[in-house]
Each structure stands twice: as structure tokens, then as C-alpha cells.
Amino acid sequence: DSGVTQTPKHLITATGQRVTLRCSPRSGDLSVYWYQQSLDQGLQFLIQYYNGEERAKGNILERFSAQQFPDLHSELNLSSLELGDSALYFCASSSGGSSYNEQFFGPGTRLTVL
Amino acid sequence: QQQVKQSPQSLIVQKGGISIINCAYENTAFDYFPWYQQFPGKGPALLIAIRPDVSEKKEGRFTISFNKSAKQFSLHIMDSQPGDSATYFCAATGNSGGGADGLTFGKGTHLIIQP
Predict the structure, then answer these.
(1) What distance in Å separates residue B5's CA from the closest CA in chain A?
(2) Which of A54, A69, B36, B68 is 20 to 30 Å from A34 by CA-CA measure?
């Protein structure tokens, strides 16, 4: 158990809808990363927050957004969902703000868009 | 653009054998190369990592070999055990433009160790 929690475990929704994925980092970790894992694209870095501020941005679509709250939990919002957004979404946390710090991954949220 | 290329896609090794997974990168700004292990239904977990100032790093049965000039690195699993059966991802990161970047992952290698 990495100490990172993600809810929900599974999410099934329809095209055009909006969903919110939630992540609680390990106690004491200030950074939260979001990744998307799909069969064709593999594991892709989406975005990083450090202590409430956006720190780095990867291949995140404009339809997706994230934030980190004062209690350090993070939410990833996915809107105008398309079939291709079906994937596993992982959250990871680390103590520091650099990607050189070890990242601890949560169990993931499996999103299915029908 | 795939910045980290990983091979093979899948690998079957007999128990006790050596498992070898290779990765190549393009971005010369990368300067930290971790390997992650993922079991079904779980998130990836850090296995071992290397910086380009050394050519090899060993932790138990796991060794990373690094060739900076060729921009290649590989994971060797010695005395492979059935419990090593998992998906392995190489990754890379580096600071570009003064900020921290996220991890860029290879596509993964599905390793099966046959008893």
C-alpha cells in the first residue's frame, strides 16, 4: 500500500459528460501528479501540483483541469468526455516538488466512457 | 513523439534466468532514469533509478546499465523469480527551462517468469 488513495475505483459514464476524480496524497507529501494509462498511449504525465500551485504540465487536454486544495488533496476534472478518454487515471505523490523525488502511485481510477 | 522507446513489449524467461529490458531516449535534457514495476490492479512502484553520472547501479537482483553516449539504458533482473512477473516501465525526466518536468514513460514490458 503506497499510502496514496484515489476515489472512485471505477467510473462509468457517457460521452459528453463531466467527471471528477479525487486523490489524497501520502501524509506529508506536497506534490501531486496525475497520469493517464491507456493501451495505445501507455502511461502519460498530465499535470503536477506542488503545495497548491501548478508546477508542471504534460499532455493534458484543454477539456481536462486539475487543482490542489489547501489540505493537499487533488481533483482531476474531465469534461466533454469522449470514448478515447476511457483509461486508468493514476495519481502519484512525492515529498518534494521535483520529479527527481520518488513518486508513490495510488491504485488508480478506471474510467469507462460509453 | 515517443521520447522513450522500450523493448521488448513482452518477455518470457525461465525461473533462474536473466531478464533484460532495454530503453532508449531522445531528449538530452533527461538526467534521471527510474524503473517502475506494476502488478495487475496496482499502481506502478519505483524499483530502481539511476543518474547519468554512473554507468551501472545494482540493488539486489536488479541492475541498471546506462550508456550516455548511446542514450540507452537497460534493466537486468538476475535469478528471475515467478514473483517478478509484472509489467516494467522505464522512465526519464529532467529539468528543462528551469522547471521540473513530469516522468516520461516507455510503453512497458510485460514480463512472465515461468517456473
Answers:
(1) 11
(2) B68
